[in-house]
């Protein structure tokens, strides 16, 4: 009975300790290192371009809303 308990609990624990835990730790700290390094130049350029695009879209939305406010004052109530 005790031998079965050792087999069913000990073997998976040993396998986890020898194989899964080291790989898990390596991958965890590798991802932490990448996050702490910040954005690459390419990622920063992409982020800057997206921010500029969002600003242009915001301006366009404000313009469209002001046109709609003049031409159809109750358009917000329909939405």
Automatic annotation (TrEMBL):
GO terms for biological process: phage shock; regulation of DNA-templated transcription. Keywords: Membrane, Transmembrane, Transmembrane helix. The keyword Transmembrane applies. Pfam families: PspB. InterPro entries: Phageshock_PspB (IPR009554). Signal peptide: none annotated. The chain crosses the membrane at residues 6-27. This is Phage shock protein B. The lineage of its organism: Bacteria, Pseudomonadati, Pseudomonadota, Gammaproteobacteria, Alteromonadales. The gene is pspB.
């Amino acid at each position: 009975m005790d031998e079965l308990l050792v087999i069913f609990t000990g073997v998976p624990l040993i396998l986890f300790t020898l194989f899964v835990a080291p790989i898990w730790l390596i991958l965890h700290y590798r991802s932490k290192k990448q996050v702490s390094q910040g954005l690459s130049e390419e990622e920063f350029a992409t982020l800057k371009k997206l921010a500029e695009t969002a600003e242009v879209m915001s301006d366009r939305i404000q313009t469209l809303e002001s046109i709609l406010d003049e031409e159809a004052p109750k358009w917000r109530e329909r939405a």
